[in-house]
Each structure stands twice: as structure tokens, then as C-alpha cells.
Design goal:
This protein is mostly helical. Helices cover about 60% and strands about 5% of the residues. It starts with a helix and ends with a helix.
Length: about 350
């Protein structure tokens, strides 16, 4: 029968689980509607919102997974400690039994002597002294027997208490794990739905997310961290998302932000942003470095090699043109900036970069 404490824990955590189920189901029902609407009417604001929602879901999923792992580690440690205590208790009980056994056996024989229940074997001495000594021994034996019973009772109570604690611990562990697992599953589904809607929105805007046989995951902003494992200029197609401009590609978060920027630019100037260069492989960096000394970063250090920079044309390359001024005033709203060095040394009005810190704050 579970202890009152265990029953209380079960009731509390079952209540929490029920609340979480209701909250999760409500969220799961509400979110897809908004995501579907965003996918049906893609635009700069919708793309930014979808990207932000995808990143938030991914972060929440990572935090919930980490919380589950930490909770499991904590409970596993506590469970191990409790098991160690129970083992110590079992060992102590066995040791006490071995120490007390001779005394217990002697006391037992006292009550099993076939003498009609009397104590004549202990009182058969030839003198009063012998009888008194026998009575003293018998009193000692009875007292020892009582101590054995008292110790056994205390140990039994302690064992029951520890067993109840173990039961509570296991019940709590199972309930907390179930609660966190449910939350993780809900967040995972929400993240997948957001990424799917984002991909659909990009496709409607002319981005061929599966271009070149790559997986649509290349345009998944929640997976940009995978690009960090590759050296500058050696990013594979699997982590580069195509742009609307043929042959151009960037890291997923930068690409999505650039598509949103491009849509706003089209509304202002009636045409897409002209792009002469985007992601630049290590070989391409070396070629540009030697062809245009002083106007290219050392190979392996360029933001082009990280998929976070573009070189633009169509008027943007002319300093203080209408296109340049518009991009300077509006680019930051999408995470795109004209870096400070590009105003002076070397002077490159055509060079623009995506700043992940600015982008993530949008």
C-alpha cells in the first residue's frame, strides 16, 4: 500500500500532467492555424515571424530536453543513494542477527525446555548462591531477548520508512519524466509545423529549397548550429539555403532574412535586389583575394565563407544612391547591415552582412 506521502505526490503530479495536456493541446490547436495563414500569404513580416517562431520553438525544445536530462540525473543520483542506504540497512540487520543469535538461541531454549514450562534447569543449583546466579543469568538472557526484539522493531520501522521513500522517489521520477516528455513532444511537433510552414512560404516566394538535390532542411533556421562545425569556405550544400536569385545561397537564417528583405525591396523599387556574390567557397575566396588585392578578406576569414555576406549591384553599389540609402535605413530591420569598416577601409558600398545577433533580436 503506498504511503500517504507517495499518494500525495502522485495526485499532485497527475494534476500537473493533466494541466499540461490541456495547455499543450490548446496550443497545438491554435498554432497551426496562424502558421497556415502565414504560409498562404508570405511576405517580409510573415517570414520574420515564422523564423522567430521556429527559433523560439527550437530553443524551448532544447531547454526542455536539458531539463529532462538534468532531472533524470538528479533522480538517478538520489535513487542510487537510497539504494545504498537500503543495502547498508540490510547489512546492519544481518550483522546484528549474527551478533545476537547466540543470545537469542539461548533465550529460545529457555522457553522450549521440556520441564512443564518451569525453570528447574536453571534453578537446580546446590546452594542459594548457585540459584541466585542462575536467576541473574536468566534475567540477563530475558533482558537480552528484549533488546533483540526492540532492535528488530526499530530496524523494521526504519526499513519501512526507507522503502516508502524509495516508492515516493520512483513515483515522482516517473511522473516528472512523463510530464517533461509530454512537453518535449509538444514542442517538437510545434517546431516541425513551424519549419514546414516556413518552407512552404519560401517556395511560394520562388525559393527552390530542394535545389541541387539538397534537403529542405538546408533552409531550416533551427539547424544553423550545424554549419558551425565546418571551416570557413567549406560549408556543404546541406547547410546552405538557396536565394531567389539563381545560383546564390546563404546560411539558413541569413537566407530567410535576405528573402524577407528582398520582398520589401521589391515593393519599394519594383524589382529584386541584384546580387553578384553570396556564399564564397575557400577556393573562390583565394581567387578573389589574388585578383582584387586589398578588396577581399584573407581566405578563410571572410564572412562570405560563413554564408553570412552578399555583394550587391543594381544601384546599391553606388554610395548614397536611392537603393543604398533605402537598404541602409531598412536593412537592419531584417538583420542585414553595412559593416562599419565597409564605409572606410576598404570602401565597399556593395558589401552587406547578416548579423545573427541583430537578426535574433527581431
Amino acid at each position: 500500500m503506498p504511503s500517504p506521502r507517495s499518494a500525495s505526490l502522485v495526485a499532485v503530479f497527475m494534476g500537473l500532467a493533466s494541466v499540461l495536456v490541456l495547455a499543450s493541446s490548446g496550443t497545438a490547436q491554435a498554432k497551426p492555424v496562424a502558421l497556415e495563414e502565414a504560409a498562404r500569404e508570405p511576405g517580409p513580416g510573415n517570414l520574420t515571424e515564422l523564423r522567430r517562431e521556429a527559433e523560439k520553438s527550437s530553443q524551448a525544445l532544447a531547454e526542455a530536453t536539458k531539463a529532462l536530462e538534468q532531472r533524470q540525473a538528479t533522480l538517478a543520483k538520489a535513487d542510487t543513494e537510497l539504494k545504498a542506504k537500503l543495502e547498508q540497512l540490510r547489512t546492519a540487520t544481518a550483522q546484528m542477527s549474527r551478533v545476537r543469535k547466540p543470545l537469542a538461541d539461548l533465550v529460545q531454549s529457555l522457553y522450549q525446555t521440556p520441564s512443564g514450562g518451569d525453570m528447574s534447569p536453571f534453578l537446580s543449583g546446590d546452594s542459594d548462591v548457585d540459584q541466585l546466579r542462575a536467576l541473574s543469568d536468566m534475567t540477563y538472557l530475558v533482558s537480552g531477548r528484549d533488546e533483540v526484539l526492540a532492535d528488530a522493531g526499530r530496524l523494521y520501522q526504519q526499513q519501512q520508512r526507507l522503502a516508502a521513500e524509495a516508492q515516493d522517489l520512483r513515483a515522482t521520477k516517473l511522473l516528472v519524466e512523463a510530464q517533461l516528455s509530454l512537453e518535449i513532444d509538444t514542442l517538437r511537433k510545434r517546431s516541425a509545423a513551424t519549419v514546414k510552414s516556413l518552407s512552404q512560404a519560401l517556395v511560394k516566394l520562388g525559393v527552390r529549397v530542394n535545389q541541387g538535390g539538397r534537403s529542405g532542411a538546408a533552409c531550416d533556421p533551427t539547424r544553423v548550429s550545424s554549419a558551425a562545425q565546418y571551416p570557413n569556405g567549406l560549408l556543404p550544400k546541406s547547410v546552405l539555403c538557396p536565394l531567389q536569385q539563381p545560383g546564390r545561397e546563404l546560411r539558413a537564417d541569413a537566407a530567410i532574412a535576405f528573402v524577407a528583405l528582398n520582398e520589401a525591396y521589391k515593393r519599394r523599387f519594383g524589382r529584386s535586389i541584384c546580387v553578384t556574390d553570396s556564399y564564397r567557397s575557400l577556393g573562390a575566396q583565394q581567387s578573389v583575394y589574388y585578383r582584387r588585392p586589398g578588396f577581399a578578406a584573407v581566405p578563410g576569414r571572410s564572412n562570405h565563407g560563413l554564408g553570412l555576406a552578399v555583394d550587391l549591384c543594381g544601384g546599391v553599389e553606388s554610395f548614397r544612391s536611392a537603393q543604398f540609402n533605402w537598404l541602409e535605413a531598412n536593412g537592419k530591420q531584417f538583420g542585414w547591415i553595412h559593416p562599419d569598416w565597409a564605409y572606410r577601409s576598404p570602401f565597399e558600398p556593395w558589401h552587406w552582412e547578416y548579423d545573427p545577433k541583430v537578426g535574433s533580436g527581431l
